[in-house]
Specification:
Number of strands: 11
Number of domains: 2
Distance between the termini: 38 Å
CATH topology of the largest domain: D-Maltodextrin-Binding Protein, domain 2
Number of helices: 19
Largest sheet: 5 strands, mixed
Helix content: 40-55%
CATH class of the largest domain: Alpha Beta
Order of helices and strands: HEHEHEHHHEEEEHHEHHHEHHEEHHHHHH
Shape: globular
CATH superfamily of the largest domain: Periplasmic binding protein-like II
Strand content: 5-15%
Length: 445
């Protein structure tokens, strides 16, 4: 994804900051039982290990391409992380807490970037690499890879949710989908047409994504001061924006618009509900488009259903106030303890090149961070909604960027699940009390 690099990326002399001590105390003991993989060699061609999240083989292909492009300077091998994001975090944190030198590069989920940066697990991004890899990049991807005003990872691919709808149903409901629509309009349309809304009410990260987008779109924040120490973090949930977010979830639950399995519905379940016609509106990631087209090719979905798919930017929480859609994706960081920082940063730059971002978008369905890719004819052919994705990514809001993200997300899920229990009168306050108590070491999750 990039090339070029300066001595600024060499591992720093590091102390033991509080967050690293916390991770180390909890995790290093596990390593003694599992051992570490020693990758590469002190002689001959260095081998870089890139820890990747599961995909359809795109990162393996990029690793092979960049190995070839290095002209024998190094080779890149991939090591597959677990599918679950929390398990990915745990495995990487365990290894990095033990100063694992085998982690040369890692694909990081954005919510975990501040935690790893605060713990000094990430090598400094050289200034020339930063300047080379942030041009023409959507703002949400830069925001998601930044900690305390400093880029700490390189944006690789970005993701966002769109509002998907059945064009025929939206027309019958009298919705003008060429204009921004609100959650209230979608709720009213679903009720009038006796259909459901595909939303993710499961007690999992999907729920945090939804709540964060609702709150941010209402002009609020889950955390007011995300860079603060644990005992100084101030939550912003118990606010007008937090209460409006809870009210929207409460309405969908009360009117039974979330589908028959609302409290356990994840992204795949929402997709299936939308494909079947059980839901005519849905908020979900772009993967639903290739999934529908593949099903149509396989003969398991009528092509006329796919032709009825429409898309628009995420619904507004407050009418007239531009929505802040969810932001997801992956950034690539270099491990603080790698023996080959120069080669690692060169490999990162190769991996995030425009050519690889286009390839990864078209072949794996993972949207690019570079705006120019969204104008490519091949991308537009595969993803006709590419301009809407790019527009959404520029407006998107990352989830709370804090070293204590795990505690915040788990606390939110605990108090806003099941959706049938959510209330503007209690849920924002309950989440505030629990998360504050956990961060002050007065409560446990």
């Amino acid at each position: 994804m990039r090339s070029g690099r300066s001595s600024a990326s060499a591992p720093r002399t590091r102390g033991e900051p509080q967050r690293r001590r916390l991770l180390g105390a909890a995790l290093v003991a596990v390593l003694s039982a599992t051992g570490l993989a020693a990758c590469g060699s002190d002689s001959g061609t260095p081998t870089l290990t890139w820890y990747i999240n599961p995909d359809a083989g795109g990162q393996d292909q990029i690793a092979a391409d960049c190995t070839k492009a290095s002209n024998g300077k190094y080779k890149i091998q991939t090591s597959l992380l677990p599918r679950d994001a929390a398990a990915q975090r745990e495995q990487l944190a365990r290894r990095l807490a033990a100063n694992d030198e085998s982690i040369d590069m890692m694909s990081l989920d954005p919510p975990f970037i501040p935690e790893f940066a605060e713990a000094d697990f990430l090598a400094d991004v050289p200034s020339d690499v930063e300047s080379a890899t942030t041009q023409d990049v959507v703002q949400s991807a830069i925001d998601g890879a930044t900690w305390k005003g400093k880029l700490v990872a390189v944006p690789f691919w970005a993701n966002t949710q769109l509002l998907w709808y059945r064009k025929s149903v939206a027309e019958k409901a009298g919705l003008d989908m060429t204009q921004p629509v609100t959650w209230q309009q979608i709720i009213d349309a679903a009720k009038s047409q006796k259909t459901a809304i595909g939303v993710q009410g499961i007690r999992a990260e999907s729920l945090t994504v939804w709540v964060n987008a609702l709150v941010a779109s209402g002009g609020g924040k889950i955390l007011e001061n995300p860079e603060a120490k644990a005992d100084e973090v101030k939550l912003g949930l118990d606010s007008d924006a937090g209460k409006e977010a809870a009210s929207i979830i409460q309405q969908i639950a009360k009117d039974r618009l979330g589908g028959p399995a609302f409290s356990t519905e994840n992204e795949d379940a929402s997709r299936a509900l939308f494909e079947s016609g059980g839901a005519s509106f849905m908020v979900n990631w772009p993967f639903v488009w290739p999934a529908a087209n593949e099903a149509a090719k396989a003969g398991t979905l009528d092509p006329s259903i796919v032709s009825d798919y429409g898309w628009a930017q995420y619904p507004e929480t407050v009418a007239g106030q531009t929505s802040k859609p969810p932001y997801g994706g992956i950034s690539i960081a270099v491990g603080a303890f790698t023996k080959h920082p120069d080669f690692a940063w060169e490999a990162v730059q190769c991996a995030v090149s425009p050519e690889h971002q286009k390839m990864y978008f078209v072949s794996n369905g993972n949207p690019a961070v570079l705006k120019s890719v969204y104008q490519d004819p091949e991308v537009l052919k595969s993803f006709p909604m590419a301009p809407t994705i790019a527009q959404s990514l520029d407006a998107a809001a990352p989830r709370p960027q804090t070293p204590y993200y795990n505690e915040v997300s788990q606390g939110l899920q605990r108090t806003w699940s099941p959706p049938t229990s959510v209330s503007p009168d209690s849920s924002p306050e309950d989440a505030t009390d629990l998360i504050t108590g956990v961060l002050h070491k007065e409560d446990l999750l």
